[in-house]
Amino acid sequence: MPEGLKKLAQPFLGLPPAKRWVVGGVVGVSIVAFALLIMIANRTDYRPLFTNLSSEDAGEIVRKLKEQKVPYQIGGDGKAILVPSEKVYELRLAMASDGLPQGGGVGFEIFDRKNFGMTEFVQKLNYQRALQGELSRTIGQIAGVEQARVHLVIPEKSLFKENEKPATASVILKMRGNRQLRDGEVQGIVHLVSSAIEGMDPEHVTVLDNKGKMLSRSGPADAAGKMTASMQEIQRSFEKNTEERLQSLLDKAVGSGKSVARVSATFDFRQVERFEEKYDPDTVVRSEQRSEEKLGGAAGASGVPGVQTNLGKTPGGMAGMANMAGSGGSKNDETMNYEVSRSTARTIEPVGTLSKVSVAILVDGSYASPAAGKDGKGGRPKYTPRSADELQKIDALVKSAVGFNAGRGDQVTVVNIPFQDTGDGGTDEAGQWWNAPIFLSLLKNGLIGFGFLALLFFVVRPLMKMLRPAKETSFEPIPTAEDTLNQIAEAHRLQLGNQTIRQMELISKVKEEPYQTAQILQNWLSSNDE
């Protein structure tokens, strides 16, 4: 063994066997614990790359990861793939560029692989599978839809029109959480599917959710239901828009988070058509007809008929004309039609007339921070309600914003009560600060440093003290009885010498001042007599 190792092992070998076992066991346990701590701190943190994957998408993604030699883990019953946290976003972008995940099923990429031995039946079947896959992917892009599956039934075309059967489709949706689709969104899915298939009627598309509830409503018998849903949508839209306008107005007036507005509206969806016909009692002339006729006598005409006679050039011609003038007559006819005047009006009132609005406003008061106490901490803030003048102004402001009409029964209620703090129970795991990568990295390094310091102070340091050689102890000799007597005699001689010196000083002092000495003695004696 080298000389250096012998010097290091000499303190350990010099210990008793029991202490050697204790020291060896503590060192071994410390090394194992420190190694486990380093392994845990340096363990790769895996995060989900994709979840809720289909078997086809999961297999394709695993193949891509193997090609790139990226470590991965499979979880969630084979529906989730986990990768190192520092590569999550990079791999998502890379997979998206490759068109992964595809969302389940196969699409038109099935025709990218050419097979010259494919029959017509297989070709049609692949086309139907491609349509189903593409529709499932498209529907899966709608907000709130987690997964979609489409089944198509496309019958063969017949030579005779009466023998053809209509194409049908079924859509099954899996929603995220408690999300529900509105009727408009469901009808959009129905029209999407029917428009993608040639000759398919929207009435032949059925939409279900993952709980078996039918979402689509089709057919003429359900027209009233569609109308009712549309009416409810109009009412909800009006109430929501009015609440948003009121809330933005109140936030400017009393501050953000200091008020709550709720609106309830009632609409009249009756379709009213009025037909009015009015008559004027004053008559008016509708038409007027007049005729005048002149008649001559029976003996007025004489002479030979002809031009000469008419011009009076024949004998008796002038006389004949005179006779005609003397025996002539006339006739006048006049006809007038009267009619009573009338006016006709046809009025169709719009559907969905606002008939009543009710508004409820909840307003918080103001808070004043109390002064700090002796302990340096302030108490609870003091609540101050709003004055009647402020509430009246808020009431007038709300009435103007909603178009208040007392004639139709509108109501506006403004209440001032203190708000209570309501904490949000659910927090997003991604937003928690202890899940941040930088915090996890600092925690790992801190654990390693703390473990190293604990090993140094609680293991290495005590072992070094134990292995350090003990210092030699020096013992003073115990004094004997003769030495003790000599010391006592010496101390007694020193004390007698001091007393003798003091007595000599006192005698010399009395000799120098006898009068003062006598006075002192006289005072002592008189004090003793008393």
Q: Can you tell me about this structure?
A:
The protein is elongated and about 220 Å long. A three-stranded antiparallel beta sheet has the order 1-3-2, covered by helices on one side. Helix content is 44%, strand content 21%. The protein is built from 13 helices and 13 strands. It has helices at residues 3-13, 17-41, 55-67, 88-97, 120-140, 183-196, 223-254, 307-310, 317-326, 388-402, 437-467, 481-512, 514-529; strands spanning 46-50, 73-75, 80-84, 145-153, 168-175, 205-209, 259-268, 273-295, 329-348, 353-363, 366-368, 382-384, 411-416. A hairpin with a 4-residue loop joins strand 2 and strand 3. The longest helix is centred in the middle third of the chain and has 32 residues, at 223-254. The model is unreliable at 422-431 and 470-475 (pLDDT under 50). Helix 2 runs antiparallel to helix 11 and helix 7 packs antiparallel against helix 10. It is of the alpha+beta class and 530 residues long.
